[in-house]
């Protein structure tokens, strides 16, 4: 992909792979959670982190598929520390169960990679009656992050190592609904557009990152939060878009990244020493990039935080 792509300030480009951007980095002693690690860039992210010595917890909905992924990783990297735990991000009960079980395990947590996602689905509601893309891509990760912050803070203090939260967004965050987040119509089927709804959830990822970074900094906690655009990648994320397979065949290697390239920015932000201290930033192609004007709107970010907290509270009261 983009064989003539130019390198940015980091020394990497859109054609850099996850292995290349983490070359020489020793992640021994670190523990990471990667959501959606049973396929696509989530699998590659887990594999490369394990390759660098990180203890990886793969948080997945499909445990059968994840067992195969774990088997493949251990076959390639015999000393890999990888384990699977069940997590359905579209269910608040599942998120709470996962967080409780992880905390009960006594494991530390240095890195949280909120990678899982769905794209351009027909209108559906989650188990908690929240529009499915918003529920899975944003609300589930928002709750998961909040539930794990105490563990991350404790790990950071005891290890004297910076904690890192990486939210996998998309350049599609620029193409949400005109108002950005449809606060008053989040579950409204009328006017629903599956691509705009995906953009809305990805905008929410960047806004969540921004407000989270602000709060962590304000609290003096040594944890950073950044969002990333992995690039257009040939994964099953596009399973709901029939024309995409034809696009891949037509443009293929010229505009589409493979999973090794697609996982690069996530792995770079999670592990690279050059990212130390950077927080509230948006990355693409393993370099700091410019997010949309809506994505850097601090008032919108604060409003989304309050809205998300209230939505979760109301759902818990109804369950």
Tell me what the structure shows.
With 319 residues, the chain is of the alpha/beta class. It has 10 helices and 8 strands. Strands 3-2-1-4-5-6-7-8 form an 8-stranded mixed sheet, with helices on both faces. A hairpin with a 2-residue loop joins strand 7 and strand 8. The longest helix is centred in the middle third of the chain and has 28 residues. The radius of gyration is 18 Å and the shape is globular. The relative contact order is 0.16.
Brief characterization of the structure:
The chain has an eight-stranded mixed beta sheet with strand order 3-2-1-4-5-6-7-8, with helices on both faces.
Salient structural properties:
43% helix, globular, eight-stranded mixed sheet, alpha/beta, 319 residues
Topology summary:
Elements: H1 18-21, E1 31-35, H2 40-51, E2 55-60, H3 63-76, E3 82-86, H4 92-105, E4 111-114, H5 132-159, E5 163-168, H6 194-218, E6 223-229, H7 244-251, H8 259-262, H9 264-271, E7 282-284, E8 287-288, H10 298-318
Parallel strand pairs: 1-2, 1-4, 2-3, 4-5, 5-6, 6-7
Antiparallel strand pairs: 7-8
Helix pairs in contact: 4-5, 5-6, 6-10
């Amino acid at each position: 992909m983009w064989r003539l792509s130019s390198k940015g300030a980091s020394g990497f480009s859109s054609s850099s792979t996850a292995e290349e951007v983490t070359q020489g980095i020793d992640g021994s002693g670190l523990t990471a959670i990667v959501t959606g690690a049973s396929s696509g860039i989530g699998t590659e992210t887990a594999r490369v982190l394990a390759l660098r010595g990180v203890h990886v917890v793969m948080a997945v909905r499909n445990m059968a598929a994840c067992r195969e992924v774990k088997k493949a990783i251990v076959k390639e990297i015999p000393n890999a520390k990888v384990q699977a735990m069940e997590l359905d991000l579209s269910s608040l009960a599942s998120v709470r169960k996962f967080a409780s079980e992880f905390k009960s395990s006594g494991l530390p947590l240095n890195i949280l990679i909120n990678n899982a996602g769905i794209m351009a689905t027909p209108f559906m509601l989650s188990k908690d009656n929240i529009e499915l893309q918003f529920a899975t891509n944003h609300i589930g990760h928002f709750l998961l992050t909040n539930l794990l912050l105490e563990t991350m803070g404790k790990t950071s203090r005891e290890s004297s190592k910076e904690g890192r939260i990486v939210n996998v967004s998309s350049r599609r965050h620029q193409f949400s609904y005109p108002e950005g987040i449809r606060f008053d119509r989040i579950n409204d089927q009328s006017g629903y557009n599956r691509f705009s709804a995906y953009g809305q959830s990805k905008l929410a990822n960047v806004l969540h990152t921004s407000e989270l970074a602000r709060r962590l900094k304000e609290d003096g906690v040594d944890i950073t939060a950044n969002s990333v655009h992995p690039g257009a990648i040939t994964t099953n994320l596009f399973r709901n878009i029939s024309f995409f397979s034809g696009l891949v065949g037509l443009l293929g290697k010229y505009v589409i990244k493979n999973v090794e390239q697609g996982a690069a920015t996530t792995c770079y932000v999670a592990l690279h020493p050059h990212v130390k201290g950077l927080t509230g930033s948006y990355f693409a192609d393993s370099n700091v990039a410019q997010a949309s004007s809506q994505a850097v709107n601090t008032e919108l970010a604060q409003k989304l935080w309050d809205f998300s907290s209230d939505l979760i509270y109301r759902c818990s009261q109804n369950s």
